[in-house]
Amino acid sequence: MKCTKELDDNSPTKNDLKDPKTIAMLVKDGRYRDVYIPEELYQELREAVWEYERLKRRKKDIKNQVTRWLDIRFPEFEKVFSAWDGKAARIILKKCPTPARVVEAGTEGIINIWREKGVKGASRKKANGIVEAAQKSIGRTIGLVAAEKSLRNMLTEYEMIEKQLEEQEKQMGELLRQVPNTEYLLGMKGMGMVSTAIIVSEIGDIRRFQAARQIIKMSGLNLSENSSGKHKGQTKISKRGRKRLRTALFRIVIPLIANNEEFRMLHHRYVSREKNPLKKMQSIIALCCKLIRIIYAILTKGIEYDRNEVLRGIKPRVKAA
Question: How much is the pTM?
Answer without folding.
Answer: 0.83
